[in-house]
Amino acid sequence: MRSNNEIQKNSDNLYIALIKYGKEKLTEGVNYKEAQEHLTKIGFDFKNPQISHLFRDAFLHIFGTEQEKVNGFYPGVEHKKFLGVEAYFNLLDHEELQHARQSSAEAKKLAITAIWISAGLAFFSILLSIIQIWHTSEIEITETQFNQLKLK
Question: What are the transmembrane regions (predicted)?
């Protein structure tokens, strides 16, 4: 039996994969059977009743008209449907989110690298200061220099 998290992840992936397929076929349109065959090829198991049900609901949500969404519909095997505007914008939002996550991960790596470099340089600076203190010889001043300091 699959866990709820696995089912949720699979349904999210199914939804995105279906929208991407609709985007690929934007000008030709997509029918129910073609979409199901495409998703089967990329690894979705329609023998699982949950996946089949999710696919039917997702297909209606992505490709259905408002009237079909309200009334429900049985998708004809050869009836071509076109990607809805809402689904297209959902895909754009998803792609932007993925890009933002990738950028965030890269920024995090750069920040961690910068922190390590900064810490290393601070340690090196402290080490050099300690070495200078240990190797500093006594300072000698002449009597003339001493008298000049005294006058000030």
Answer: 110-134
- Cβ contacts of 120 within 8 Å, gap of 6 or more: none
Token pair for 47: 């023998």
Domain span at residue 38? 4-83
Cα 22 from Cα 29, distance rounded (Å): 7
| 45 in the same domain as 107 | no
Q: Is residue 148 part of a domain?
A: no
Q: For the chain, how many residues are written?
A: 152
In this structure, are 29 and 58 located in the same domain? yes
Grouping H, G, I as helix, E, B as strand and the rest as coil, residue 81 is: strand
pLDDT tens per residue across span 11-56: 568 889 999 999 998 888 898 888 988 999 988 888 888 888 888 8
Q: Kindly report the CA angle at 144 between 139 and 150, in degrees rounded to 5?
A: 85
pTM for the structure as a whole? 0.61
* 8/70 same-domain check: yes
Beta bridge partners of 81: 30
d(CA 106, CA 102): 6
Q: How many angstroms separate the CA atoms of 51 and 5, rounded?
A: 14
